[in-house]
């Protein structure tokens, strides 16, 4: 008897979950000490463990990456205009609006899909106070050029590093660059704490300031030094992060093998481009973007639809551009004519499923669907 049961859908990502049994001792400890939040023991342990693992000086955990971005801007007292990319998740620009800052969109580089440093200077005005680039898909920005421009014009740099957990640039953590980098530990990310995020900064004084800001501005029981927010990570998330960290190297290695398998399968498909990381990058394979060009026999959306009909839920990250959303599209820097590369990439991109539990046979079936005429 044949079964007409459809195979389970495959999503663009699936969180890496260690065996439940391994999490229970952490929960028992929380039940025992009754420390649920407010920077408890697991929070402290995870901050130390992540600083060691990532090779960064200071890290402050957050309830999510968006609150971390909003707080990062507050901590540096950023105002006026900030130069940023239209090719990202909306939270990048939304964090500016939440601070009353005007985003100024600048086009991206066609190879890295990151802010094009050659176009930053022309967008600087007397109101510009900072640059907020994104290491899109975990691909490092041109950090050297951005640092040079920032230092010449006296601007701060806040990297949205939501995709860049564990990425190294010339052998060092890419998170060491800029005044601040912000990570997301959302369930869809390479390293997750269900919801979560972090700010990486370069000195202890700044970390103290950020720690006050994420706890309503409290310094002690009776002293509040700033209109802070509640951005704290809870103990269950922090404990999960500690457990997740134990398996992270295996998870990253599996992602690398999936990446290779896709690349090998798609290398000869006319019209499909698989952007590759630079030789100076140790990537985290957080995403597997492909560009569907005019030489491919079908449009990007037709391929997206074909995959969907086969139960493959790939995603068109990042389409639409942030600058196309209603709260941004009236801004002069949001005009499509000023963002030709971002517009073209956004109309061609599909991110294919990639996560540690994705099986080789599933990768092969996705490749076969793309190869099919
Ligand atoms: C580039 C980028 N920035 C910011 C965020 C926001 O992070 P979170 O979902 O943890 O708030 C995300 C993802 O969710 C992201 O992809």
Automatic annotation (TrEMBL):
The active site is at residue 189. InterPro entries: DegT/StrS_aminotransferase, PyrdxlP-dep_Trfase, PyrdxlP-dep_Trfase_major. SUPFAM superfamilies: PLP-dependent transferases. Gene3D superfamilies: Type I PLP-dependent aspartate aminotransferase-like (Major domain) (3.40.640.10). The modification N6-(pyridoxal phosphate)lysine is found at residue 189. Keywords: Pyridoxal phosphate. GO terms for biological process: polysaccharide biosynthetic process. GO terms for molecular function: pyridoxal phosphate binding; transaminase activity. PANTHER family: PROTEIN RV3402C, TRANSAMINASE. Belongs to the DegT/DnrJ/EryC1 family. This is dTDP-4-amino-4,6-dideoxygalactose transaminase. The lineage of its organism: Bacteria, Pseudomonadati, Pseudomonadota, Betaproteobacteria, Burkholderiales.
């Amino acid at each position: 008897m044949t079964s007409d049961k459809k195979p389970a859908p495959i999503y663009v990502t699936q969180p890496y979950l260690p065996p439940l049994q391994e999490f229970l001792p952490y929960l028992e400890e929380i039940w025992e000490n009754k420390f649920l939040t407010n920077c408890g023991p697991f929070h402290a342990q995870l901050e130390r463990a992540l600083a060691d693992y990532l090779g960064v000086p200071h890290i402050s955990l957050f309830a999510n990456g968006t609150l971390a971005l909003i707080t990062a801007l507050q901590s540096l007292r950023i105002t006026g205009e900030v130069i940023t990319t239209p090719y990202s998740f909306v939270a990048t620009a939304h964090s500016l609006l939440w601070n009353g800052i005007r985003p100024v969109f600048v086009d991206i580089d066609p190879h890295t899909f990151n802010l094009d440093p050659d176009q930053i200077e022309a967008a600087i005005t007397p109101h510009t106070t900072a640059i907020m680039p994104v290491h899109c898909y975990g691909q490092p920005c041109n950090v050297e050029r951005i640092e040079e421009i920032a230092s010449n014009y006296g601007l701060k740099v806040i990297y949205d590093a939501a995709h860049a957990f564990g990425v190294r640039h010339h052998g060092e953590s890419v998170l060491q660059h800029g005044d601040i980098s912000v990570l997301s530990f959302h369930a869809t990310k390479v390293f997750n704490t269900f919801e979560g995020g972090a700010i990486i900064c370069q000195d202890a004084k700044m970390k103290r300031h950020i720690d006050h800001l994420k706890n309503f501005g409290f310094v002690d029981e009776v002293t509040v030094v700033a209109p802070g927010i509640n951005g704290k990570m809870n103990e269950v998330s922090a404990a999960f992060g500690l457990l997740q960290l134990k398996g992270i190297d295996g998870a990253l290695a599996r992602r690398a093998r999936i990446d290779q398998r896709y690349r090998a399968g798609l290398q000869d498909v006319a019209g499909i481009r698989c952007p590759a990381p630079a030789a100076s990058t140790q990537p985290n394979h957080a995403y597997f973007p492909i560009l569907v060009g005019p030489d491919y026999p079908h449009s990007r959306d037709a391929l997206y639809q074909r995959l969907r009909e086969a139960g493959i839920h790939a995603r068109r990250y990042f389409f639409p551009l942030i600058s196309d959303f209603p709260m941004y599209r009236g801004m002069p820097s949001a005009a499509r004519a000023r963002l030709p590369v971002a517009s073209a990439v956004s109309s061609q991109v599909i991110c294919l499923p990639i996560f540690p539990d994705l099986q080789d046979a599933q990768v092969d079936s996705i490749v076969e669907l793309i190869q099919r005429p």
